[in-house]
Amino acid sequence: MLEPLLYPKTVAVIGASRTPGKVGHDILANLIDCGFKGQIVPVNPNADCILGLPCCAELRNHKGGVDLSVISVPVPMVRAAVESSIYAGAKAIAIITAGFREVTPEGAELEREIARLCAARKVRLLGPNCAGLINTHHLMNASIIPNLPPAGGISVISQSGAVCTAIMDWAARRHLGLAKVVGIGNKADLTEIDFLEAFAADEQTKVILGYLESISSGDEFVKVAETVTSAKPVVILKAGTTQAGMRASASHTGSVAGSEVAYGAAFKRSGVIRADNFEKLLDAATALATQPLPKGDRVAIISNAFGPGIMAADAVEQSGMQLAALAQGGSTALRGKIPVLERAGTPINVLGDADLELYGAAIEAAQEDDSVDAVIVILTPQVMTQPAETARTIAHSIRGNKPVLAAFIGGEEIMPSLDEMLDRNLPDFPSPERAVTALRALCEYAAWRRRPPRVVTRFPVHRRRVERIIARHLRTGRIYIGDVKAKEILHAYGFTVPEGHMALTADEAVEVANRIGYPVAMKIVSPNIIHKSDAGGLKLRLSNPEDVRDACDLMLLRIRQRMPEAQVEGVYVERMCSPGREVIIGMNRDPQFGPMLMFGLGGIFVEVMKDVSFHLAPIAAEEAMQMLSETRSYALLTGTRGRTGVDLSAIANSLQRISQLVTDFSQIAELDISPLIVREVGTEPVVADARIILSGVGLNHE
Amino acid sequence: MLEPLLYPKTVAVIGASRTPGKVGHDILANLIDCGFKGQIVPVNPNADCILGLPCCAELRNHKGGVDLSVISVPVPMVRAAVESSIYAGAKAIAIITAGFREVTPEGAELEREIARLCAARKVRLLGPNCAGLINTHHLMNASIIPNLPPAGGISVISQSGAVCTAIMDWAARRHLGLAKVVGIGNKADLTEIDFLEAFAADEQTKVILGYLESISSGDEFVKVAETVTSAKPVVILKAGTTQAGMRASASHTGSVAGSEVAYGAAFKRSGVIRADNFEKLLDAATALATQPLPKGDRVAIISNAFGPGIMAADAVEQSGMQLAALAQGGSTALRGKIPVLERAGTPINVLGDADLELYGAAIEAAQEDDSVDAVIVILTPQVMTQPAETARTIAHSIRGNKPVLAAFIGGEEIMPSLDEMLDRNLPDFPSPERAVTALRALCEYAAWRRRPPRVVTRFPVHRRRVERIIARHLRTGRIYIGDVKAKEILHAYGFTVPEGHMALTADEAVEVANRIGYPVAMKIVSPNIIHKSDAGGLKLRLSNPEDVRDACDLMLLRIRQRMPEAQVEGVYVERMCSPGREVIIGMNRDPQFGPMLMFGLGGIFVEVMKDVSFHLAPIAAEEAMQMLSETRSYALLTGTRGRTGVDLSAIANSLQRISQLVTDFSQIAELDISPLIVREVGTEPVVADARIILSGVGLNHE
């Protein structure tokens, strides 16, 4: 798909230079040094020959075509270089030059213009303001980063060239091979999504690593990532997650960072392994690139010392995995050999004077044992320890059927042993906790791969009815939909709402109240009044005709006094809901990822305790249930302190209906049901109060 | 104080062996190899000479005395070796041999016996089951760990020999010097507390590092640690914090781990820097050993690339520190040199082609700038980067007035540059986030050193009254103090309790109610009834004489029916408290650390949301206020959603009074005020219900 970019036969370097240290020189040098088998065309009007290659003065005059054109000329000359490349037949262009969107509005405009130019000719554009790209399996380094790394299974997508370099340098240290490394820079055309797709299809890529400061098209990202992660693991470090980080990021690739919560929800939803920091990114990648996926989360710890074994045990439990006990068989095989018998659920201690055989025997037993899913092997240098020999023995004991991760702990003493392990795909981590965290990423990804298919229920609803209400609001320029009409919309999507009717006078209000039964609530209806209770436009628990009459007269009087300009349509008289547990369902549309559902218990739980959970719509039934159980106050829903629980699946159902509603109507920008009143199992939740805000971008006529 | 142990002139090795690999051989070899200047006495009845030193057959026959005796003979011979050492005049004994308390009850008994033997002669005992000790400034390695590390300022106290070894090996890699390294093993006599004191007094020690699985005497630890940390930083990794870790730990040094919450409270209280994992332990030690303390938490980030700069900015904000903006002066000095001007509160970017001067200028500007407290300098290897030269330039720019931490990120490329930095006390961390975490430890410790003096208020109370109530309970074998007597105790310590009196009959109850005024509560009083409401022994909000009479008759009837054996002393008629916000104050006595206070809001906040805070008693006023603000529901106390706040200092006051009560009376094992009713500022909190449980160990007659 990105063949001309990733596997070009001819690469032109526009801005090739004779001066070492200049970008145009270094790219050319990198291309030559890596042993590229295709044709390299340096373009420079003032040179005949650079680094032994004949120069072309103007690419448009070059005969024989070109697949990829790498541009490093100064900003004012980039546009001409792009045109020249297109004219010469380039199918892909990489612009290394910086100084576009990230600097000035004019730079942004120029960037858009160039992108349009390329798009018109179906030429794919990488950058600008990027590090270029490397494809080890094509012996191609068309980047500013020196050296071609050893070939392997890790592909890198990075918004920062420096991070590409750091990852390459780190991979060399860990003896890990790389497949493709791409600096995506300002993403004027090609984005992380294009490369996720390309690397998913790429046979050489086993693991995809990403460093991102922004995501270009959130909902597409989620869709693509979900497909990609079903085949290959994707680990992403999303930087710029704090206010400070965002300020720093805004001056970099000119990107606008999305809401933090939304990124969390998007990664969870699409099976992307999220790295909180740089080490976790690399550690997870190491484990994923070298180890098979575990069948479960029971971890055997083998250690030649108690202390680090205890640290590992702590880390295993803290990360939500389980410490494995070797089953009877495994234990028996080892019983004669291991001095201190391990007790159920404790690390296997091969003691300080562990000889090579003992380590080997313990690792083999753990790999054979059906009650072990993964192994962590720890070594500290002790008097009798032979780190290098032990490393060799351990490496030779690896079967490859279960993940085995090592933590050789120390410094100088253990350095010589690492190479041997790394060469045999046995990754080493410098502390027990780091090994556990890396294993955790493996386990999480394995669980994602085992997930049941996601089925989003489509409920039968009255969609036309909602369309009409929304259209009517937008036609009259109203984006706020108050309680009464919001309930009509929710009712059309299967929600139970209290019976109620409009009244224009106190007499009518009493008549309505008599008809629907007491107690009633009374609410002013006006497009100008959003905060009803502040304006005196809300009365609850009116229990007889006199109270209704008084409330209605008083309400109309107050509104005339306080908000004389408000256009009053009447008062809404509504049967009071019977009391129950109050929950809140909300939605707002994240600019990157689209509709984000929110759930929490009413009142202080949302407002003071911030005890809420989020999920991207559309959601499946299990995800809706998960939203409930993710709140800290969940126990109040399931029942506690002698109170019976509420109908959980009825709430989950409500969340799914909201999910369907906001997916059906992209005009809905925000929605709040606050509260939804829920009661014991078998009862219908009732919408006590609701409001909807439209985005005002006009109705989609589908 | 531990002079004979840490600075012995003569060291005997009982169990010295000719066979390499045997512990008795290795210890002797280590002592000889490290260049020990004192006398070494190998003890072995079957050898004349080992490793060139003449042997002594029996230490008791050795002429000329001995300061330290190191014992590595098998368990059955240890007792005799100890006696022999004492006879020969040893002032300190280190038992390396394992197989005592950690293995069998007999081992535990033998260990106690040996400890008694030593104590009787005022001989200090290290171990058993320990790695021995190292004192680099005395050129002494009396341990099983090979090599004498370079001398420096870090001293290590560890319950695991393997952890000692790992730390030594790691320190060598980081070019950090060590002062003392002690494996404390089973702690039969000398514990972490002794070594905290010794290292606090030790001129060579600048930083104390601890690996602990248990703490021997919690309250003494807190007292000693608070003094030590006021002079030198103490960083401790407490392992065995999870169920899994505790199981693993129990089989190690035979220690019983204390409550997790208590450790957290104890470390907070005593200024100990707590490391969650092994890397944090080492990273914090590195920063503390090499850097000056910062005056505040404003961090300047200098980076040659945006990506890692953003990661660092994220980490700074997440850890609660602030990103510094260079003040006008600093910026001007740099303005001509730095290509992209930094904006306020963003990392200072010296760009990918940063030359050495630019790095140097940026670091100097940051060190001069009054709005910067600490500097993090980041380098990623890029085309033009010269890591080694940059390292040198940076190292030369260090003034030593503010902490400067480096994060050179990558692998192979940056390896050569590290040594130069390390040698100049510029610590390097492998990721931006690790550098930030290490800096955070520095900042925290600096804040601890700046803390105001802790003043624990002593309130005037009626202590004798409480003594009498407790004595009376214990005399009659009752450890449960119910609501009525608990309120008497609390009243004696200055709490407001509702007016109330005992009644024996319904007539009396009505009489009491009429006197104190309605509404009243009525509570059964019986030493046998703990859960009053379950037994039908609690009635609330009785508002007239008839209700009181009915309730009393019914209560006495119910109790006779449900608990015929209960000894009923009467009913307690009490004025109902006016409603307010309900909070809970609790105390239980941690086996390690003593009285632990708990605070939380009543009802679901404690029971469902587990929203509680803890602090060790006694507490000062600020600590009490901190207990309030540490709860997530704090906003409900300060006022929110249109409700006015409650009297915070009145609650803090109550916490301090409870602190005084439970410190005065060690017989109080548990105490609960549930709830304490608090209202607006200026009102007294009222104890609505309380109970106290005594430990039953008898009254201290002071």
UniProtKB/TrEMBL annotation, chains A, B:
Span of the secretion signal? none
Q: Which GO terms of the molecular function aspect are on file? A: acetate-CoA ligase (ADP-forming) activity; ATP binding; metal ion binding
Q: Which residues cross the membrane?
A: none
What are the ATP-grasp domain coordinates in residue numbering?
Answer: 487-694
User: What SMART domains does the annotation carry?
Assistant: CoA_binding
Which Pfam families did the record assign? ATP-grasp_5, CoA_binding_2, Ligase_CoA_2, Succ_CoA_lig
Task: Kindly state which keywords UniProt assigns to this record, in alphabetical order.
Answer: ATP-binding, Ligase, Nucleotide-binding
- InterPro entries per the UniProt record, alphabetical: Acyl-CoA_Synth/Transferase (IPR051538), ATP-grasp (IPR011761), ATP_grasp_subdomain_1 (IPR013815), CoA-bd (IPR003781), Ligase_CoA_dom (IPR043938), NAD(P)-bd_dom_sf (IPR036291), Succ_CoA_lig_flav_dom (IPR032875), Succinyl-CoA_synth-like (IPR016102)
Query: What Gene3D superfamilies does the record tag this protein with?
Result: ATP-grasp fold, A domain, ATP-grasp fold, B domain, NAD(P)-binding Rossmann-like Domain, Succinyl-CoA synthetase domains
Q: Which PANTHER family match?
A: 3-HYDROXYPROPIONATE--COA LIGASE [ADP-FORMING] (PTHR43334:SF1), ACETATE--COA LIGASE [ADP-FORMING] (PTHR43334)
Q: Which family does it belong to?
A: In the N-terminal section; belongs to the acetate CoA ligase alpha subunit family.
Write the protein's name. CoA-binding protein
Source species: Candidatus Abyssobacteria bacterium SURF_17
